[in-house]
């Protein structure tokens, strides 16, 4: 299947080269390999903008990086995570901003987590739930679908061919709004993935419970779409019950979640 898509993509390229852009809309569009290329463009733009995206260096924070990558690897090991041979789930980055309760994944599986989210959550299961949700946006290709919708296939193809404005891809990515269906699907996949790990399979629910309790009802990514936090908690727990999966928390060996927090820059009081 991937081969067929690649051939179709090559067709798009040759048609564009010959100015036959009408044919583009009739073709299926972007391949998972294209997702990776798009992701790399977004990653490059983030790297060029340390003011807005102060990514912690892996050299200075080896313990923190080892912890978050180990967690991500455990989730990605689930059979239900797709494209693990080509997506970059193994390059998680931490953004140093204690005010932001967020995480995101680019097309192609490059994942970013804010220190604000890590400090806000209480344990590894909660963060694993959020990571599962982000991995699902990449694995289910929500972000590439949305980018295709927002920017148009032709513009994306031109950028990937080196003929367009690369910055447009990144701004297209950061303007993404996932649909209610995408959010619900990612919540559900978080439960499915975590069911294959030692983390509490409904870890994502805790995040929304906490947000509801603290009265925060709007914010980026997680809360930008319609399902209310309360509904999402119910849906996540219903999925966990349906799967009959383990809701008890992981007993961590080695570095604990608190150690992980301590290994990050100390938050301003
Ligand atoms: Zn989401």
From TrEMBL:
It is an enzyme of class 3 (hydrolase). Binds 1 zinc ion per subunit. Its cofactor is Zn(2+). One of its GO terms (molecular function) is metallopeptidase activity. Keywords: Hydrolase, Metal-binding, Metalloprotease, Protease, Signal, Zinc. Pfam families: Peptidase_M48. InterPro entries: Mito/Outer_Membr_Metalloprot, Peptidase_M48. It comes from the Bacteria. Residues 66-238 form the Peptidase M48 domain. Residues 1-19 form the signal peptide. Gene3D superfamilies: Metalloproteases ('zincins'), catalytic domain. Its EC number is 3.4.24.-. Belongs to the peptidase M48 family. PANTHER family: METALLOENDOPEPTIDASE OMA1, METALLOENDOPEPTIDASE OMA1, MITOCHONDRIAL. This is M48 family metalloprotease.
């Amino acid at each position: 299947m991937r081969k067929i898509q690649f051939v179709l993509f090559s067709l798009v390229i040759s048609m564009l080269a010959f100015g036959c852009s009408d044919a583009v809309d009739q073709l299926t569009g972007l391949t998972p390999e294209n997702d990776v290329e798009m992701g790399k463009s977004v990653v490059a733009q983030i790297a060029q903008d340390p003011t807005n995206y102060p990514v912690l260096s892996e050299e200075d924070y080896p313990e923190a990086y080892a912890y978050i990558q180990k967690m991500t690897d455990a989730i990605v090991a689930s059979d239900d995570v797709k494209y693990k041979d080509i997506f970059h789930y193994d390059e998680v980055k931490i953004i140093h901003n204690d005010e932001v309760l967020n995480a995101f994944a680019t097309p192609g599986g490059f994942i970013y987590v804010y220190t604000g989210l890590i400090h806000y959550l209480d344990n590894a299961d909660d963060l694993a739930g959020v990571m599962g949700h982000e991995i699902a946006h990449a694995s289910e290709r929500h972000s590439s679908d949305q980018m295709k919708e927002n920017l148009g296939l032709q513009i994306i193809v031109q950028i990937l061919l080196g003929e367009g404005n690369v910055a447009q891809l990144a701004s297209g990515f950061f303007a993404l709004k996932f649909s209610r269906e995408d959010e619900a699907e990612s919540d559900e996949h978080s439960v499915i993935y975590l069911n294959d790990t030692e983390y509490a399979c409904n870890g994502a629910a805790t995040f929304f419970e906490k947000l509801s309790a603290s009265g925060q009802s709007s914010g980026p990514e997680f809360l930008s779409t319609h399902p209310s936090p309360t509904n999402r908690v119910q849906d996540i727990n219903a999925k966990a019950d349906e799967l009959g999966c383990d809701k008890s928390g992981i007993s961590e060996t080695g570095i604990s979640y608190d150690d992980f927090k301590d290994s990050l820059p100390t938050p301003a009081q």
